[in-house]
Amino acid sequence: MKEEKKISPMIPVVVDDREAGSEVVHALREIDGLVVEVRRLKLGDYYINGNLLIERKTFGDLASSIKDGRLFQQASRLASCPTRSAVILEGTADDLIRSRMRREAIQGALITLTIILGIPVLRSKDPLESARLMLYAARQTGAVPRQSFPRRGKRPRGKRKLQLYILQGLPGVGPGRANRLLETFDSVEAVVTATTARLAEVHGIGIKTAQSIRWSVTP
Q1: CB of 58 within 8 A of CB of 45?
Q2: pTM confidence score
Q3: pLDDT band at 8 (very low <50, low <70, confident <90, very high)
Q4: Does 212 score more than 60 pLDDT?
Q5: Cα–Cα distance between 185 and 219 in angstroms, integer?
Q6: Are residues 169 and 136 both part of a single domain?
Q7: What's the structural domain count of the chain?
Q8: 78-130 confidence digits (pLDDT tens)
Q9: Would you list the DSSP string of 53-110?
């Protein structure tokens, strides 16, 4: 009896309509096994296979979002979302030079994204590689259950617990200070975008800790 060929299920990719004209979307449509839908997303640029949010940034995008503060607002929302999330940073060394952003500022932003907020940053050289990277990520996250591997310091369930967990990644912030920061500002996003003076007003924070927090989340 002839063995039937197993057909892999199609992977759905929802693209934020503000990304609709990008070369990445064209590349995604050319890849077999993906079904691409364009609509407005509340968070991220791409929602893949119902379990992965991707924020895509070129070096130029990254530089602009660091300067105007959007990066940390977006990253804080991603970090607080229960859905798996990642940032794809697209471009080459030449693109980094053209962005006119200091290397130290880029490194500081990446430290905040990865170490403080716990968001993976994936690298690609161009839109085609970004599209392929999304496909690989979708396949692997679909094949490996979220809790397959035990991990130290794994993110807790529940939005408030997750927010407190993220805030405790900031310098000088333990459980008590994280609680007071969240009670004062209501969200991680508001904490990481607050001024030094405003942070220092929170009971138990003080100017030195406030300065350390601002240093850790700014270029």
Answers
A1: no
A2: 0.68
A3: low
A4: yes
A5: 22
A6: no
A7: 2
A8: 888 888 889 999 998 888 888 888 888 888 888 888 888 888 999 999 999 99
A9: EEEEEEHHHHHHHHHHSHHHHHHHHHHHSSSEEEEEEE--HHHHHHHT--HHHHHHHH
Task: Give the number of other CB atoms < 10 A from CB of residue 213.
Answer: 25
Which amino acid, 114? T
Amino acid at 82: P
Distance CA 9, CA 7 (A): 6
Do 196 and 94 share a structural domain?
A: no
What integer best gives the mean pLDDT of the chain? Answer: 83
Reported as a single tens digit per residue, the pLDDT across 24-63 is 999 999 988 889 999 999 989 999 988 899 999 998 888 8
The answer to whether residue 116 is domain-embedded is yes
Q: 108 and 166 share a domain?
A: no
What's the rounded Cα separation, in Å, for the pair 88 and 54?
A: 7
For residue 41, the SS3 value is: coil
30 lies in the same domain as 90: yes
Closest CA to 43 of 58, 35, 52, 53: 53
| Residue 58 lies in domain | 11-143
Is 209:180 a contact under the CB 8 Å cutoff? Answer: no
52: helix, strand or coil: strand
Q: What is the CATH number of the domain that holds 121?
A: 3.40.50.10130
CB 82 within 8 A of CB 63: no
